[in-house]
Design brief:
The chain is mainly α. It contains eight helices and no strands.
Length: 148
C-alpha cells in the first residue's frame, strides 16, 4: 500500500518538462524500486532483532515475494508517463492518468484484501478504500507542498 503512496507522491511532484524528457518515468520507477528495497531490508532487520540467527534463504524469498507489489506499484504510472515522453499522450494527460491509476489502486485495496481473504467484497471495504485513496492523496499533497 505505501508503495502506491510513495509513487503517488512522485507522480504529483513532476512537471511537464520532466514528463516530456522521461525523467518522470525514471523517478517513478526508482521510487517504487527504492521503496521495495527499503521494505525488504526493514523486514530482514526486524527479523534479525527478533531472532539473531542469519535469515534463511526461504525467509528472504518470502519477504521479497510478499513485498513484490511494492516493486510493481510504479509500473502502470511509469508506463503512462513514458507515453507522455514518447508523445502518445500529452504531458498533462499522462500525469493525470498516472495519478488516477494510483488512486484507483488505493481505492480498490479494501476489496482486494477481502477477495484475497476469501470474503465477499463489501460496501464498507469500498468506502474504506475511498478513504484510503483520499488519505494517500493528502499525503502526496503534503509531500509536494513541503518539497517544493
Amino acid at each position: 500500500m505505501y508503495g502506491n503512496v510513495t509513487v503517488l507522491g512522485a507522480v504529483a511532484s513532476v512537471g511537464t518538462e520532466q514528463t516530456l524528457n522521461g525523467r518522470a518515468t525514471v523517478l517513478v520507477l526508482v521510487t517504487a524500486a527504492s521503496t521495495f528495497v527499503a521494505h525488504v531490508l526493514a523486514e530482514l532487520v526486524g527479523q534479525s532483532i527478533e531472532a539473531p540467527a542469519r535469515p534463511q534463504a526461504h525467509a528472504v524469498r518470502t519477504d521479497v515475494r510478499d513485498a513484490w507489489p511494492i516493486a510493481t506499484s510504479g509500473t502502470p504510472s511509469a508506463l503512462l508517463l513514458a507515453f507522455g515522453a514518447w508523445g502518445v499522450l500529452s504531458s498533462a494527460m499522462a500525469q493525470l492518468l498516472a495519478a488516477c491509476i494510483v488512486l484507483v489502486r488505493l481505492a480498490l485495496t479494501g476489496w482486494i484484501v477481502e477477495w484475497l481473504s476469501g470474503r465477499r467484497a463489501s460496501v464498507a471495504a469500498l468506502w474504506g478504500g475511498i478513504v484510503l485513496a483520499a488519505i494517500g492523496a493528502s499525503i502526496a499533497a503534503v509531500k509536494v507542498a513541503v518539497s517544493h
